[in-house]
Design a protein that fits this description.
Layout (H helix, E strand, L loop, with lengths): L11 E3 L5 E3 L3 E5 L3 H6 L10 E5 L4 E3 L3 E2 L8 E3 L1 E7 L16 E8 L2 E2 H10 L4 H4 L5 E3 L3 E2 H4 L6 E6 L2 E7 L7 H11 L7 E3 L7 E3 L4 E6 L5 E5 L1
Parallel strand pairs: 3-15, 5-11, 6-18
Antiparallel strand pairs: 1-2, 3-4, 7-10, 7-16, 8-9, 8-15, 9-12, 13-14, 13-17, 17-18
This protein binds manganese (II) ion.
């Protein structure tokens, strides 16, 4: 094809069995654990989970040393289970979500400029610059479904400089993975290559220059990133 510019490289995440997973889009679920919704000042019963996005090229591999993001004095960590979509579709009923739709799972961190998010919320403005900035989506190696099995429970944890800050269980999601796929695929047709960040448990907090973040979910490869 006669492109006017050199096409950008395809963003990708390593697969633990070898090779890499090409990232098409990144969708994220907000307020998907009740205790986190409460710590953010929301009522998880009256305000159900909802979606936002990050650019595909916001992905960062485990082991990265990241520059501290611009325009924030309150960068927060949010450890999340990431679902890699292997087969898409529109209006997928939760009961029909199967191993064919899910390529695999990884540990992710939804980095958030919390100060910009709070200002956006107060003014009814979009969250894009709070959530979708450069290098805002560290993702560890993807474990294929054949290795990880269908994940419905497991410890999820984040440490900053070795100290546990977030600890929960993915069984405590408000919307579980089949419901997330059903809801999201009613808004957009999902496609192979999409990543879904499924929300964070309680304990989110600030990250400062020099911090080392270690994120773990039982059964998956860990994710580590550091800030210069
Ligand atoms: Mn999040």
């Amino acid at each position: 094809m006669d492109f006017a510019l050199q096409p950008p490289p395809v963003p990708a995440v390593a697969v633990s069995a070898g090779g890499s997973f090409p990232v098409r889009r990144i969708f994220c679920v907000a307020r998907n654990y009740a205790e986190h919704a409460r710590e953010m000042g929301s009522d998880p019963v009256r305000e159900p989970p909802f979606f936002f996005t990050k650019p595909a090229d916001a992905v960062v591999a485990s082991g990265a040393l990241l520059p501290f993001p611009s325009r924030t004095a309150n960068l927060h960590h949010e450890v999340e289970l990431v679902v890699a979509i292997g087969r898409g579709g529109a209006d997928i009923p939760a009961g029909q979500v199967d191993g064919g739709h899910i390529f695999g799972y990884a540990v992710g961190i939804d980095l958030t400029r919390r100060d910009l998010q709070a200002a956006a919320k107060a003014k009814g403005q979009p969250w894009d610059m709070a959530k979708g900035f450069d290098r805002s989506a560290p993702v560890g190696p993807i474990s294929p479904l054949s290795r990880a099995g269908v994940m419905t429970r497991g410890r999820i944890e984040l440490r900053v400089n070795g100290e546990v800050r977030q600890s929960g269980d993915i069984a405590d999601m408000i919307w579980h993975i089949p419901e997330i796929v059903q809801e999201l695929s009613a808004f957009v047709a999902l496609a192979a290559g999409d990543l879904i960040f499924t929300g964070t448990p309680a304990g989110v907090g600030p990250v400062v220059r020099g911090d080392r973040l270690e994120a773990r979910i039982e059964g998956l490869d860990p994710l580590t990133v550091s800030f210069a």
